């Protein structure tokens, strides 16, 4: 005989919360427990009628409660963090869709065990607010002050602050590249998202006339082999002939970087199509697409295949840089200068040989050389010339605090005039990232911008850390490149008490806004076509409940 499982009021409320948390984290409709028959039958089978899943009103009630609990936990964590003399870092961006706009702000820090914490400090409804720099600044400071990160008190008329100390309690910021949030966050020591900046640099590379023409053809070929039945048949024959796995060229729909589709297509054609391209072109010349166009209109001829092949190798390093710097679960501030320096090194026209899968590829095509030159200029301009000296200094210190810095590639962003920009050349010469005795140093990050004096990054630390502790750190033996830097600092915190405190501060800064974009992905799921009745306030509290 089956016994009825009794559910106490306390257990019932706990189950209601668990179901609500599952709904917001997995982006399920909030009415699902009330209206989904199969969902209700599962619980009826388990509890024999002694428990009923929450209705929509109860789900909303629990979302508000979970949001309040998450906010309280975050306030407590930040209070403890500030008591340890560690300042948090923030990243922010704006999302809008279907008449709804949300201003999202995430907060980051490293705890005593060197675990990265990523929490939502605000998801502010912004549909009725002008997206100006001033409004974004006020919203950011107000949100931070609510969590004890400084104080922001406005006068009775609500325009002029009587107390404004938020910027003093934020170590660093990372924002979207839009001019409104950049101007709004100029009061903080921050930088623009590395992923977005790389995408803008690569856009400069792909927008060069010779490159644009080739990649437009590549997109046409991709559409042909994806949508033409005969084209797909010929492609399969080619792959069978060379014993390659059956696949089709990827569509140009990479929303992660905005340019990843071009790289993915170039890589696919390099690995699949280049083996037998001439035979396939001849066979496919007269085969029409559904829209009436023919493959011949998109046919790559002569050295255009060289442009695809060589471009793919340049874009590969940009793709790797994005993959490295978009992580928010691992520290990335220590990798910012080495990774961007490596990208600039790869883009520099003097280096004509690149490595790919153990093979050397020579960049000889003149169109690719011109595009590389523009890419190099843009990388130097965005990541070195336009970045505040204090932020470059922070990244340099973060690189120094990586014990694996002996493994950093020797790269240099200096010594070459930036073609077509004589004013930028002196500054470019001074932005120097190189491996020196295993410790990355950055030259001329301090002082007057016209000064030619160079500054070893260890000297930036000596004012804070006793010289003997710094000397012991710099004298450390070889540290393997596969060592987990966070685990290393956790185990070495006793030996380097002051440096470990600095490591928690400087390594906790994010290099990109990828975390905010992932939060917005959750918003998109909550605000799908089936759930557009959700209000901004409900989405705001749902995110707070899901992420905190």
Secondary structure category: alpha+beta
| Dominant shape | globular
Proportion of beta-strand residues: 5-15%
Oligomer: single chain
The poorly predicted ranges are 406-455
- Average pLDDT over all residues: 77
Cα radius of gyration in angstroms: 27 Å
Taking the alpha carbons of the first and last residues, their distance comes to 43 Å
Strands ordered across the widest β-sheet: 3-2-1-6-7
Count helical runs.
22
The total of beta strands comes to 11
Helix amount, in percent? 40-55%
- Biggest sheet architecture: 5 strands, mixed
Protein name: HAT C-terminal dimerisation domain-containing protein
Keywords: Metal-binding, Nucleus, Zinc, Zinc-finger
Main location: nucleus
InterPro entries: HATC_C_dom, RNaseH-like_sf, ZnF_BED_domain_contain
Would you mind describing this structure in some detail?
The chain is an alpha+beta fold and 548 residues long. The protein has a five-stranded mixed β-sheet, sandwiched between helices. A two-stranded antiparallel sheet has the order 4-5. Helix 1 crosses helix 22, helix 7 packs antiparallel against helix 12 and helix 13 runs antiparallel to helix 14. Keywords: Metal-binding, Nucleus, Zinc, Zinc-finger. One of its GO terms (cellular component) is nucleus.
Itemize the secondary structure elements and their pairings.
Blueprint: H1 9-25, H2 32-35, H3 37-47, H4 56-83, E1 89-97, E2 100-110, E3 116-125, H5 133-146, E4 152-154, E5 161-164, E6 172-175, H6 179-184, E7 190-192, H7 194-206, H8 209-227, H9 229-241, H10 260-273, H11 277-284, H12 304-325, H13 336-347, E8 353-356, E9 359-362, H14 366-385, H15 389-400, H16 424-430, E10 432-436, E11 439-443, H17 458-462, H18 467-474, H19 485-492, H20 497-506, H21 514-526, H22 536-547
Parallel strand pairs: 1-6, 6-7
Antiparallel strand pairs: 1-2, 2-3, 4-5, 8-9, 10-11
Helix pairs in contact: 1-4, 1-22, 4-22, 7-12, 7-14, 8-9, 10-12, 12-13, 13-14
């Amino acid at each position: 005989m089956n016994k009825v499982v009794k559910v106490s009021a306390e257990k019932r409320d706990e189950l209601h919360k668990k179901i609500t948390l599952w709904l917001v984290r997995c982006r399920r409709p909030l009415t699902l427990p009330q209206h989904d028959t199969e969902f209700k039958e599962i619980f009826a089978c388990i509890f024999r009628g002694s428990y009923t899943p929450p209705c929509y009103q109860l789900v909303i009630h629990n979302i508000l409660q979970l949001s309040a609990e998450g906010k309280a936990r975050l306030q407590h964590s930040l209070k403890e963090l500030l008591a340890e003399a560690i300042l948090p870092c923030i990243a922010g961006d704006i999302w809008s869709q279907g008449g709804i706009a949300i201003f999202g702000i995430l907060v980051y820090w490293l705890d005593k065990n060197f675990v990265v914490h990523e929490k939502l400090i605000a998801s502010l409804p912004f549909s009725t607010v002008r997206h100006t720099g001033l409004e974004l600044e006020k919203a950011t400071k107000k949100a931070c002050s609510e969590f004890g990160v400084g104080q922001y008190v406005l006068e009775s008329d609500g325009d002029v602050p009587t107390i404004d100390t938020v910027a003093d309690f934020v170590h660093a910021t990372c924002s979207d590249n839009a001019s409104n949030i950049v101007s709004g966050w100029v009061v903080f020591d921050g930088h623009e998202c590395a992923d977005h900046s790389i995408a803008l640099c690569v856009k400069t590379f792909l927008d060069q006339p010779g490159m644009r023409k080739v990649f437009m053809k590549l997109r046409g070929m991709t559409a042909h082999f994806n949508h033409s039945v005969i084209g797909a048949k010929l492609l399969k024959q080619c792959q069978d002939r060379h014993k390659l796995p059956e696949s089709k060229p990827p569509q140009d729909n990479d929303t992660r970087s905005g340019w990843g589709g071009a790289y993915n297509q170039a890589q696919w054609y390099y690995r699949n199509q280049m083996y037998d391209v001439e035979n396939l072109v001849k066979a496919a010349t007269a085969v029409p697409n559904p829209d009436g166009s023919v493959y011949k209109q998109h046919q790559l001829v002569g050295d255009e295949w060289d442009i695809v092949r060589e471009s793919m190798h340049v874009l590969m390093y940009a793709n790797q840089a994005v993959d490295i710097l978009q992580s928010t679960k691992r520290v990335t501030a220590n990798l910012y200068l080495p990774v961007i320096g490596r990208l600039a090194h790869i883009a520099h026209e003097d280096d004509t040989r690149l490595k790919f899968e153990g093979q050397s590829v020579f960049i000889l095509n003149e169109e690719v050389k011109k595009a590389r030159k523009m890419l190099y200029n843009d990388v130097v301009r965005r990541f070195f010339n336009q970045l505040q000296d204090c932020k470059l200094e922070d990244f340099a210190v973060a690189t120094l605090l990586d014990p694996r810095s002996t493994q950093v590639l020797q790269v240099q962003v200096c010594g070459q005039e930036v073609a077509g920009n004589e004013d930028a050349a002196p500054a470019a010469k001074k932005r120097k990232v190189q491996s020196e005795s295993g410790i990355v140093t950055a030259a001329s990050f301090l002082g007057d911008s016209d000064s030619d004096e160079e500054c070893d990054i260890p000297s930036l630390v000596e004012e804070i850390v006793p010289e003997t502790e710094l000397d012991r750190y710099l004298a450390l033996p070889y540290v393997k490149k596969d060592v987990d830097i966070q685990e290393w600092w956790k185990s070495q915190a006793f030996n380097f008490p002051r440096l470990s405190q600095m490591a928690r501060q400087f390594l906790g800064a994010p290099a990109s806004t990828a975390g905010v974009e992932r939060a917005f992905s959750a918003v998109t799921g909550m605000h799908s076509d089936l759930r557009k009745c959700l209000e901004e306030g409900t989405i705001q509290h749902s995110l707070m409940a899901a992420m905190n």
